[in-house]
């Protein structure tokens, strides 16, 4: 099996990204071979590419934790995650103590309080709690049990802000993932007027029955959008210097390129930093990865729609509106709508595969990959390519040069 590697963001209480948890699977030959792959990966460039220079949380085995090899890894850039149900014998306790003294952060993953796991608490700095394992009473009891040890608390799978806020009151400082934005999706139904206008323009660009003059007039009604369009078309990358009108700019770009560009501008217009910035980055990553997969799937012409499916897949969380309303506003093709709403059809299957990879659901990745005919190694390679592409585009989507690169892939 190929070595698969993806990431999930870790936010602080102010929703600032402080680290990324790395999810991995693959390798053969048992823990020793997998440990060597992990070390090689951590020493190579893939981790740096995935984390944008932030600290990485890397899952390790008890054997690697106790091995001299672990000291090859930079403690300033890596936190070592150990499953709390690993054997808490003397060797593990000594390893945790020595690594802590050497400046490493050891994190106990999927923590449940027990006599063996409690014996490790004096030697570690953080515990990660999967909230799916606990009800409110159990979580309150756990927080009280570990409080005397002074460890930091990280919550995984906080599904909504109410749960997140309850965790904050119990002393949790960090949160893995971004799903706690979901309740706002249920609370807001009205889109801001500028987004409604952007959706209208996207719909016009996709409809061949809409005359070019109508598209031109839509740009004219938005001074900011017209300005950005002229700046971009006048850039050297498009070779369009001397553009004399909005209509000329529209004709130079073409509708497909314009649709992609306006889509990226829509994302940039709602990005405020923190969780939203990460959601925007993930949208770009999903879009690019879905698009890239069209080639090995033998469906190159589907690359454009697949890009849109990936990019639009998180608009409900980014914009705080139900996906059904967004799909209705966009009036996308039926296949795209089915993918976004139900993960149905070919586009939906590709999106589901990308989401499973993103979340480290490796059994699902293998099943869907086999059904679609995508080898894990191909998916892993294209995921890394999509990571680099998304980072380059997420820096500043409003810059002409960046946007030109984005619309041309």
- Rg calc: 23 Å
Class inferred from helices and paired strands: alpha/beta
Strand order in space, largest sheet = 1-2-3-4-5-6-7-8
How far apart are the termini? 30 Å
Low-confidence stretches: 181-189, 400-406
Number of continuous helical runs:
22
Q: How is the biggest beta sheet arranged?
A: 8 strands, mixed, barrel
Question: Any overview of this molecule?
Answer:
The two termini are 30 Å apart. Residues 181-189 and 400-406 have low confidence and may be disordered. It contains 22 helices and eight strands. By secondary structure, the chain is of the alpha/beta class.
Please write out the topology.
Blueprint: E1 4-12, E2 17-25, H1 31-43, H2 46-51, E3 55-59, H3 62-65, E4 78-83, H4 90-101, E5 105-109, H5 115-118, E6 126-130, H6 136-146, E7 152-156, H7 161-170, E8 174-176, H8 182-187, H9 193-206, H10 212-220, H11 223-233, H12 246-253, H13 255-269, H14 274-293, H15 303-312, H16 315-319, H17 323-330, H18 334-342, H19 345-358, H20 362-372, H21 376-394, H22 400-407
Parallel strand pairs: 2-3, 3-4, 4-5, 5-6, 6-7, 7-8
Antiparallel strand pairs: 1-2, 1-8
Helix pairs in contact: 9-10, 9-13, 11-12, 11-22, 13-22, 14-15, 14-19, 14-21, 15-18, 15-19, 18-19, 19-20
Task: List descriptors.
409 residues, alpha/beta, 8-stranded mixed barrel, 11% strand
Give me a quick take on this structure.
The protein is of the alpha/beta class and 409 residues long.
């Amino acid at each position: 099996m190929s070595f698969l590697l993806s990431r999930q963001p870790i936010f602080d209480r102010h929703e600032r990204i402080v680290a990324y948890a790395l999810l991995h699977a693959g390798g053969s030959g048992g823990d020793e071979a997998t440990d060597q792959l992990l070390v090689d990966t951590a020493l190579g460039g893939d981790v740096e590419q995935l984390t944008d220079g932030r600290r990485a949380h890397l899952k390790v085995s008890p054997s690697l934790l106790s091995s001299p090899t672990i000291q090859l890894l930079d403690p300033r850039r890596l936190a070592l995650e150990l499953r709390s149900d690993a054997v808490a014998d003397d060797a593990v306790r000594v390893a945790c103590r020595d690594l802590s003294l050497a400046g490493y952060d050891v994190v106990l993953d999927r923590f449940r309080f027990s006599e063996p796991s409690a014996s490790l608490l004096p030697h570690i700095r953080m515990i990660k709690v999967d909230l799916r394992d606990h009800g409110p009473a159990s979580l309150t009891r756990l927080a009280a049990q570990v409080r005397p040890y002074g460890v930091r608390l990280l919550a995984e799978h906080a599904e909504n802000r109410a749960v997140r806020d309850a965790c904050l009151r119990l002393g949790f400082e960090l949160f893995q993932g971004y799903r706690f934005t979901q309740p706002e999706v249920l609370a807001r139904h009205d889109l801001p007027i500028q987004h409604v206008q952007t959706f209208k323009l996207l719909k016009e660009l996709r409809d061949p029955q809409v005359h070019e003059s109508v598209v031109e007039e839509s740009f004219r009604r938005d001074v900011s959008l017209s300005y950005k369009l002229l700046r971009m078309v006048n850039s050297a990358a498009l070779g369009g210097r001397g553009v004399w009108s909005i209509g000329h700019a529209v004709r130079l770009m073409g509708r497909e390129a314009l649709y992609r560009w306006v889509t990226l501008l829509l994302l940039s217009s709602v990005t405020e930093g923190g969780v939203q910035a990460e959601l925007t980055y993930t949208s770009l990553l999903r879009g690019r990865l879905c698009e890239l997969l069209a080639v090995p799937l033998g469906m190159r012409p589907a690359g454009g729609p697949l890009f849109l499916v990936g990019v639009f897949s998180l608009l409900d969380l980014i914009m705080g509106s139900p996906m059904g309303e967004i799909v209705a506003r966009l009036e996308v093709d039926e296949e795209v709508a089915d993918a976004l709403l139900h993960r149905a059809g070919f586009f939906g299957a590709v999106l589901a595969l990308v989401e499973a990879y993103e979340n480290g659901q490796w059994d699902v990745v293998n099943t869907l990959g086999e059904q679609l005919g995508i080898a894990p190694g191909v998916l892993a390679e294209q995921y890394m390519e999509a990571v680099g592409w998304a980072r380059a585009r997420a820096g500043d989507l409003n810059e002409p040069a960046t946007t030109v690169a984005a619309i041309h892939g």
